Amino acid sequence: MNCNVATVWMHDYLDGELPQQDVRELKAHLLECPSCRMKFEQLDRTESLLSSAMHARGSIEPEQSARLNERIMAALPKRRRQSPWISWVRNHPAATVAALFLFVMLSSFLSMWHQGGELIVRGQDLQSVVIQGDKVIVPAGTKVHGDLTIENGIAEVQGDVDGNVTVIDGSLQLASTAHIAGSSRTIDRALDWFWYKVTETVTDIAK
Description:
four-stranded mixed beta sheet, Anti-sigma-W factor RsiW, 7 helices, 2 domains
């Protein structure tokens, strides 16, 4: 446990507002941390002094009571107000981990977006595919079995593709003789590319 969190919990404990589970965690920390244990003992004595002073207040002159209160309040450790964000993180650990994982994935994928311009061609059946520079051609009269994915290039489909055609950061040209059994799409925005990569990653993991 962080010592700053322990200090906040000390106040809640002495006020009787700390949940039982946190009480056990606080006590375990105090056993391990001499500095926090000393701070707790000082705070406990200060709280006891304040309580005694409040009970005896009726027999003290108003000016003396005011000075006593000032001295006691000055002796109290500064209580740090816990951020609502920290409280939310403590109460929703699973959601926090998921959000952090999504943020890391998004940052990683977006950092890769537009890095390098190398032509990448992926598919189960590339024997009939012709590559000319940055152009990937499926000639008329030929058939590609399975999905076809082209990154950083131009896809020119003249023949048949028995699957999906996906073009990332490029363009797709379909001849009148072209036939695509699945879907065809062009991804040219970072967010679309990100969701494509997420879907692809999940699919690979599920295989």
